[in-house]
Design brief:
With about 350 residues, the chain is an alpha/beta fold. It has helices at about 15-25, 45-60, 75-85, 100-110, 225-230, 240-255, 260-280, 310-315, 340-360; strands at about 5, 65-70, 95-100, 115-120, 145, 150, 155, 170, 190, 205-210, 285, 295-300, 320, 330-335. It folds into two domains: about 15-255, Aspartate Aminotransferase, domain 2; about 260-360, Aspartate Aminotransferase, domain 1, CATH 3.90.1150.10. It catalyses: O-phospho-L-serine + 2-oxoglutarate = 3-phosphooxypyruvate + L-glutamate; 4-(phosphooxy)-L-threonine + 2-oxoglutarate = (R)-3-hydroxy-2-oxo-4-phosphooxybutanoate + L-glutamate.
Length: about 350
């Protein structure tokens, strides 16, 4: 077996120790003679996995008691609709911050359910920066303020939150568990699993309990109701059991690594190494405002665009997989989530420097 360094933006690399444990337990989970995939979701065994997953996430993110963890399906894209469908009941509008491709998609879906107030946008600078939080266009009577703190495609990240009384709804799909956050500052956090959490198929939602009553809307599909999901421990119907089990193993691994604080330290180191390699060359460049460069997704372009195909072919041959930028923007992108070891980033930098020597 030979594993490569996988820079895919998602589904992304998982920690090897997690895959090995899943492999060891694949046919016979804890001596029960069955795989987790074959267990009833209502069995005592699976209920213990679900409880463990929630307990570990609660510890990792220090989630206060007045929040519920709800597992949903349909990807974060389904949440783009599910959130306004649940939370705008009794409100005339919702505010959205527009900072890139993913917030644009969230806005498009929200418009089907409510009036979207554009709180701020950096479209005019091709999403290379973040709107000035002191002059946002906020409707204080809106249902919430939605933002995307890490734009996976553009490679833009911001950690500070605007000052507002509105509940903040944040798409943390590509940044959850990579840095410390104060959950109590959010009304709802949601994140598709396939970057920092586990395999695709489950979306984590951490929702403040007082917002659950807003789901009281007869037109809302029952499987979409946050209130219903919370009441039924995410088991209105069959949940994605294997994806939840893998998330539990990833959370266990994170705890052995020292939790989010330790992860953040490594993530800062990895990102600084890679950005400084880019900045110190005249051959590679990254367009994002340095204050808002993503620690998770690092897009870069080559001074000579005609070398892109060669770069991708040779990097793949060197065991550095999936470095192509998103199909909508081209260029390169290295996604360096929690599971990417520092050695992987060093290997990428060595390759980039050798490539520059050969072709620069
Ligand atoms: N939001 C962000 C920030 C993402 O990066 C992605 C996918 O990459 C999505 C939403 C959509 O996730 P999904 O494909 O699970 O619907």
């Amino acid at each position: 077996m030979s594993r490569v360094y996988n820079f895919c933006s998602g589904p992304a690399a998982l920690p090897e120790a997690v895959l090995e444990k899943a492999q060891a337990e694949l046919l016979d989970w804890h001596g029960k003679g069955v795989s987790v995939m074959e267990m009833s979701h209502r069995s005592e065994e699976f209920m213990s996995i679900l409880a463990s997953t929630k307990a570990r996430l609660t510890r990792l993110l220090n989630i206060p008691d007045n929040y519920e963890i709800v597992f949903a399906q349909g990807g974060a894209s389904a949440l783009f609709a599910q959130i306004p469908a649940n939370l705008t009941n009794g409100f005339d509008s919702a505010c959205y911050l527009d900072t890139g491709a993913w917030s644009t998609k969230a806005i498009k879906e929200a418009k089907k359910y409510t009036n979207v107030v554009l709180a701020g946008s950096t479209k005019d600078v091709s999403y290379t920066s973040v709107p000035d939080f002191s002059s946002l266009n906020l409707d204080e009577k809106a249902a919430y303020l939605h933002l995307t703190p890490n734009e996976t495609i553009g490679g833009l990240e911001f950690a500070d939150l605007p000052e507002t009384n509105l509940p903040i709804v944040a798409d943390l799909s590509s940044t959850i568990l990579s840095r410390e956050i104060d959950v109590s500052k959010y009304g709802l956090i949601y994140a598709g699993a396939q970057k920092n959490v586990g395999p695709a198929g489950v979306v984590i939602n951490i929702i403040r309990k007082d917002l659950l009553a807003r789901s009281n809307n007869d037109a809302l599909p029952s499987v979409w109701s946050f209130e219903n999901l919370a009441k039924n421990d995410s088991m209105i119907n069959t949940p994605p059991t294997f994806a939840i089990y893998l998330a539990d193993l990833v959370f266990e691994w994170l705890e052995t690594q020292g939790g989010v604080t330790a992860m953040e330290k490594v993530n800062v180191e990895k990102a600084e190494m890679l950005y400084s390699a880019i900045d110190n060359s005249g051959f590679y460049s990254n367009p994002i405002d340095v204050r808002y460069r993503s620690r998770m997704n690092v897009p870069f372009v080559l001074a000579d665009e005609s070398l892109e195909k060669t770069f991708l072919k040779e990097s793949e041959e060197a065991g550095l997989r999936t470095l192509a930028g998103h199909r909508s923007v081209g260029g390169m992108r290295a996604s360096i989530y929690n599971a990417m070891p520092i050695e992987g980033v060093k290997a990428l930098i060595d390759f980039m420097q050798a490539f520059e020597k050969r072709y620069g």
